[in-house]
Every structure is written in C-alpha cells, then in structure tokens.
Amino acid sequence: MTKTVILGVIGSDAHVVGITILEQALEAAGFDVVNLGVQTSQEDFVEAASANDAEAVLVSSLYGHAKQDCEGFHQRIADADIDVTTYIGGNLAVGQDDFEETRKFFRELGFDRVFNSETDPEDAIEALRADLDMRSSESEQESQTVSA
Ligand code: B12
Ligand 1 pocket: which residues have CB below 6 Å? Predict the structure, then answer.
C-alpha cells in the first residue's frame, strides 16, 4: 500500500532546494508526497498530516532556528490525536556544534529520527521503509539497523 508522507520547511525558513530533492527521491521510491513547501507553520504540518491520513511527517530546517520552531510541535500532534512518525533534518543548529548533542535535543522533543545536512535522501528512505513497515511489529522495530 502507498504511504503518504508530509514534507515541508518549518518556521520562516525559505531554503527550498533540499526538500525539492527529497520530494523527488521519495516519489521515485513510491511514496505519496504532500510537499507543503517553505515557511510552513506547525499548524499546517499537523493539519496536512490529519487531512491526508499521513504515516510520516518530514520537517526540514536549514537556517539555524529549528530548536525554536519545533518547540511544542509534538504536543500539537498529540492534541490532534494523530499517530505519525516524525523526522527532522537539515542544518539544525547555528554553527558547527556537536551533532550528537543536536540529535539528542530533537529526539527529546519527540522526533523519531534526526538527520544532519550530509544526509543522502536514500538514508531517509531506508529509515522510512523500516519504520513504516514495522509499525505493526514492535519486535521487528527493535531489530532495525538504520541509525539516525
Ligand atoms: C542557497 C542558500 C540560501 C538561499 C536559499 C534559496 C532558496 N530559496 O532555497 C538564500 C540566499 C535565500 C539563503 C538565505 C539565508 N540563508 Co542560506 N544557504 C544557502 C546554501 C548556500 C545552500 C542551501 C542548499 O540549497 N543546499 C543544497 C541542498 C540540496 O542541501 P540541503 O538544503 O542541505 O538539503 C539536504 C540535507 O540537508 C537533507 N535535508 C534537509 N532537510 C531535511 C529533512 C529531512 C527529514 C531529512 C531526512 C533530510 C533533510 O537532505 C537534503 C537533500 O540532500 C547554504 C549553505 C550550504 N552549503 O548548505 C546556506 C545556509 C543554509 N544559509 C544560512 C543562513 C544563515 C541563511 C540566512 C539566515 C542568511 C541571512 N542572514 O539572511 C537566510 C535565511 C533566509 C530564510 N528566511 O530562510 C546558513 C545556516 C546556518 C546555520 N544553520 O547555522 C547556511 C548553512 C550558510 C552558512 N554556512 O552560514 N540561503
């Protein structure tokens, strides 16, 4: 069955090239992609996920303000009573910080996976295939190998 994923750049961020590449790669891999484009609010991500019965929400952020833009995002998802896998990727912090710290921060916010700006779209696709296929089987989920 085709899986629907929501894709967009959060906050006031206008960097469009990354999500365009991701959209093309995801579509080529057989996903139904709803690309919300740049400067997308938390509310729009949640509404689109709900309206399209999406399996996953992929948030992109390049301009260094992802931490502020994503505060409360998972509470909104919970309030909307939807069950989606959430990924975030891009240049998630200002400057060259320790990415493991950044990953930890966003995992604690509630994102299932956190990707840096070196991510090959195929890595995200592999992770999505693993996560979305395994939702019905927790034991399989534990054995999956992609690290993000
Ligand atoms: C082009 C560019 C711009 C263009 C954007 C044009 C457009 N409409 O897209 C313009 C000139 C408008 C611009 C503006 C700004 N920019 Co700019 N920009 C860039 C630049 C040079 C390239 C970005 C790009 O297109 N990369 C190519 C794509 C293919 O790669 P990508 O975006 O990284 O996406 C890939 C991965 O990150 C990953 N990915 C991205 N999102 C996600 C999400 C998920 C879920 C997953 C799995 C993966 C993933 O997969 C993508 C595909 O491979 C980068 C520097 C750089 N070399 O990256 C700076 C950069 C992103 N910009 C930066 C900044 C600071 C700004 C401004 C704030 C500058 C200013 N003071 O005005 C503004 C912000 C404006 C705004 N409102 O967004 C900084 C961000 C710094 C930070 N995070 O610490 C960077 C890193 C430059 C730098 N070294 O300082 N920018």
Answer: 12-18, 21-22, 58, 60, 62-64, 87-91, 94-95, 115, 117, 119, 121, 124
